[in-house]
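hey m, so remember when u said the tokens were messed up on ur end? i reran from scratch. heres the input so u can diff it against urs
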Amino acid sequence: MLRELGLIRYRCFERFALEVPESRNTLIIGKNGSGKSTLAQGLNLLSLAAREPQTATHLANSLVTPIDPNGTIFMVGADLGGQRVDYFLSLQPSSAAGRLEILFEQLFVDSLEFFHRAGREITYWKPGVGWNNIASAEVPVLALAPDSPEIEVFNQLRSWLKRVIVISPAPQQIGEFAEDGVQSLGVHGEHLASFYQSLIATKPRAYEIFINKLRAFIPGVVETDSVSFPGGRKLVRVIFGRDQKLTIPLKELSDGEKMYFLAATLIAAQDVDGPFTIFWDEPDHYLSLDAIQTFIQALRQTKGQFIATSHNAETINAFATDEILVLQRENYLSEPTMKRVSELDYGRDLVQALRLGEVYE
């Protein structure tokens, strides 16, 4: 489970560390511009680094915001297999346009350094042997060398990061076709059809969980199907009605219905292929007020970790106060702070206190 996320010189943060409560569910609230979406982007970059061998140059193509000329540091801490694992990655722009260089990487297990890379010089601890040194050409992030033998703690960290899903949906980017070989969801949900199709193809039990949840979210849904097209593409469709059937491609659903489809897919994935760590930036977007509580509670009740950001009163009311973190800062030049709501003295209903500005110092 995610326990800490640190960013130094990245977007609006000069230096900031998010410490996640020891809970499966966490809500981050804060004013516009406080940095909630920046946290999501930083975590997403680390997840991308683990999904396939990524050199610093590959990561440059994944960045939403350029790296600071003085170097940017990404840090993630997680509880993995009964151990606390902390990973640091520092990147800086290269002299070649559009490229990045790795300044350093570090990996700690229960506060003891296990791995260190400075440029192309790699040092790592091998149990029973001691410290080993490697000098190599450009090596993927989170790896000792291009063809190095696997080391268990690296396996654990990479495996966990691959199961971090960062989502900030843009319904207009959600298409109707599933493509062969595409298994990631995409930060905007653009590969939802492929993620869904891959899930039910590899984990058939997921469909029953998915369709039951989708029926609960959207009255009138009967089933889903897919139609094969040349090139390995499949058109994903939702079928309404039993007597007079109405078949609608995924792309043509309303924005809110696409969010229900996405949530039902993630809930099914958590059940049959979890646990995942899901970081959802404003999950209440595109939903009617009366639907938000049910929607958020369904995500909270999965067996994985669910982290959300929101401004919405209905979402805030779905979390316990000791699960809610307040991210705040005065302006872009000030340092951000993070506190648990349960540590603050706001003296009234939390939502009303937020409306009156009594929670933000």
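this time it looks ok to me. The longest strand covers residues 83-93. if urs says something different then somethings off w ur setup not the seq
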